[in-house]
Amino acid sequence: MSCVEGHDYIYHGGLNIYDAEELLKVVDVWRCRRCGNMRLGLRGPEVLGSSEGMLPDISGDKHWVLFVCKSSSKPCFEVLQLSDTDKFVHKCSGEEQELHYVRGKGVFYGVDGPMASSCYVYEIGKIVRGYIDLSRTPPEVVTLIK
Ligand SMILES: [Zn+2]
Q1: Which residues pair with 85 in a beta bridge?
Q2: What is the pTM of this model?
Q3: What's the gap in Å between 55 CA and the centre of ligand 1?
Q4: What are the helix (H) ranges across the chain?
Q5: How far is CA 126 from CA 22, 58, 71, 72, 92, in A?
Q6: Higher confidence at residue 70 or residue 144?
Q7: How far is the CA of 134 from the centre of ligand 1 (A)?
Q8: How far is the CA of 9 from the centre of ligand 1 (A)?
């Protein structure tokens, strides 16, 4: 299962990100057929088939997370690389907010803080091959992955 000489990626599937009827972005996922490492690309709905927008490769202890924030009138999202417990800064309506992520639990204000309201996180490996509609609260996820 060693991929020291490089991963052997094959296309795994896409995740369409909608705000109601509007397609905002498409996340493309390639997966290494030996170790399962995932490579992601992000493209707008208007550039189909483009390989621009490839995201930086991920390192071993991190996983891909789709973060959704609905605290503004228009929902926003980010694709993040996070460890099982991690912190990151989200900028929404000009305000920087440090958030703490705990895999399988969610997003919190501070290590022992309350759950971040209006924030949602998804492991991209679990919701790929489908779509998410950010206009719903909580966002609606439809995936073929079991
Ligand atoms: Zn690999």
Answers
A1: 102
A2: 0.92
A3: 17
A4: 124-127
A5: 23, 17, 24, 26, 26
A6: 70
A7: 32
A8: 7
